[in-house]
Design goal:
Elements (H helix, E strand, L loop, with lengths): L7 E2 L2 H5 L7 E6 L6 H7 L8 E6 L6 H4 L7 E5 L4 H8 L3 E3 L7 H8 L5 E6 L7 E3 L7 H7 L2 E6 L8 E2 L2 E3 L5 E4 L15 H11 L7 E4 L3 H13 L5 E3 L2 E2 L1 H8 L15 E3 L1 E2 L3 H7 L5 E4 L7 H4 L5 E6 L2 E3 L4 E2 L2 E2 L2 E2 L6 H10 L4 E5 L3 E4 L2 E4 L1 E2 L17 E4 L2 E4 L5 H10 L3 H13 L9
Parallel strand pairs: 1-11, 2-3, 2-6, 3-4, 4-5, 6-8, 8-11, 9-17, 12-13, 12-18, 13-15, 14-16, 15-17, 18-23, 19-26, 23-27
Antiparallel strand pairs: 7-10, 19-20, 21-22, 24-25, 27-28
């Protein structure tokens, strides 16, 4: 922090003028990612070199990347890719930083040198002098604690969310810039497919009254929410990294009370949210919603404190031993570890807890259909959840529990939920490779 404690209002261009070649800049994450400062910094592209920017979950195109298509001036480092970040990664303009998302506050406090400048988009200053981080608590508190200069980009259109470590006080801020009043980015969920609905039915059948849910991103986990809303299950709790539209729909339909939670009883807790206007309007100044720093949400020892914790997450490929590759396609990075590995462990460790990894059994590329369940993962694929951590695996063709199962038993179980067109070939491969020994089964 600069020594002065009086936050001064300046223009975005004046804020961008503070950047020097070689600086590390923090851009924030999700709804907290800067827009006005980004545009101003892009206008300085020819004045700067080797400016390194850390960000996460980019929801709008970034001016600094559009202004520097050869990566000659700005370097973009990202904790979790969105579709936009993935496209920039494919173009060689973005680099992933491996992480468990729930550990990031500790990374900033222990391992990352203080950044030259941190810029975070925030709600207007409240009556207590705090700038609320909206639906983006994440690790923003740790960022502003450590940065040499703290800039907040004030935006009246962001939803104001109560929480823990979800604000920065004006005494900690060096400069305030106008972030305009452009509405928060809306990212609607794609409509569920038949496979999504089939998986959702299987998972919904395993969820009991009083379960405490973590819902991952995507149509498949959100389809579970839709089914639960009609199932009659009651007193659900929410302890999740990401607030989704599916969770908000469950809440609006009365299925979520949080009455049986151990932590933050009666509250929906998350670390960030992305969705539609209905999500933002529902959570805005709603005392039933809390947005917490991600290390207060994702850590397995915290997740496990809620009985009947249930983690529901997607993956893109699994092998016959139960390894889930959820973040890359070979050496091409597509998303990130996020909180998946931590919630898999935390939910399993809870009393009565359950972890579900779900996937459609096949995908199609260039008119060719292939199995997502394979003997060997695609070379270069990153294992997000290990075989030792795997509990329930679900496709549209069934559900299996891999806990306590030997390698041969796992192979047979995984084959049983693969698409029928691929089961014979997977069985042959499993036997030829020795995963299923001769004479067994």
């Amino acid at each position: 922090m600069a020594e002065s404690r009086a936050a001064r209002r300046i223009s975005a261009d004046d804020a961008a003028a503070l950047v020097r070649s070689g600086d590390w800049i923090e851009y924030g994450s999700g709804l907290g990612q800067t827009d006005a400062f980004d545009a101003a910094l892009a206008r300085r592209v020819d004045d700067l070199s080797d400016v390194k920017i850390r960000a996460c979950l980019t929801l709008r195109p970034r001016a600094v990347l559009d202004a520097d298509p050869e990566r000659a001036h700005f370097h973009w480092f990202n904790w979790h890719f969105t579709g936009y970040d993935r496209a920039k990664g494919d173009a060689g303009l973005a680099s992933y930083i491996p992480c468990n998302l729930g550990e990031l506050p500790d990374y900033y406090r222990r391992f990352i040198e203080p950044s030259a400048i941190a810029v975070v988009k925030v709600c207007p200053r409240d009556e207590r002098g705090n700038y609320n981080f909206s639906l983006a608590a994440l690790w923003h508190r740790a960022i502003v604690e450590r940065a040499k200069v703290v800039i907040v980009e004030e935006c009246a259109a962001l939803p104001y969310i109560n929480g823990v470590e979800n604000s920065v006080h004006e005494s900690e801020v060096d400069f305030v810039i106008d972030g305009g009043d452009t509405p928060a980015v809306e990212i609607p969920n794609p409509p569920p497919t038949d496979a999504d609905r089939a998986v959702a039915r299987l998972i919904a059948g395993e969820i009991e009254d009083g379960s405490c849910l973590q819902i991952g991103i995507g149509a498949m986990p959100n389809a579970v929410c839709s089914l639960l809303a009609d199932s009659g299950v009651s007193d659900l709790g929410i302890h999740t990294e990401m607030l989704t539209d599916g969770i908000v729909d469950l809440y609006r339909r009365g299925a979520v009370t949080g009455a049986r939670k151990a932590l933050y009883r009666g509250k929906i807790v998350c670390s960030f949210g992305v969705g539609t206007a209905q999500q933002y309007e529902t959570a805005n100044r709603n005392p039933d919603f809390l947005c917490l720093a991600v290390d207060l949400i994702n850590q397995p020892h915290i997740v496990m404190q809620n009985d009947r914790a249930v983690a529901i997450n997607n993956t893109t490929q699994m092998d016959l031993q139960g390894q889930a590759a959820s973040e890359s396609a070979g050496h091409r990075h597509i998303s990130g570890t996020g909180g998946q590995a931590q919630f898999v462990r935390g939910a399993y460790a809870a009393s009565g807890g359950k972890s579900f990894i779900c996937l459609s059994s096949t995908y199609e590329r260039k008119g060719v259909r292939a199995s997502r369940i394979v003997l060997n993962l695609t070379p270069g694929n990153i294992v997000t959840a290990t075989r030792a951590d795997m509990m329930y695996v679900v496709t549209e063709h069934g559900i299996v529990n891999l806990k306590g199962r030997s390698v041969p038993e796992r192979a047979r179980a995984m084959i049983s939920i693969a698409h029928p067109d691929f089961r014979d070939e997977l069985e042959r491969q499993a036997r030829e490779s020795g995963l299923i020994p001769r004479g067994l089964f």
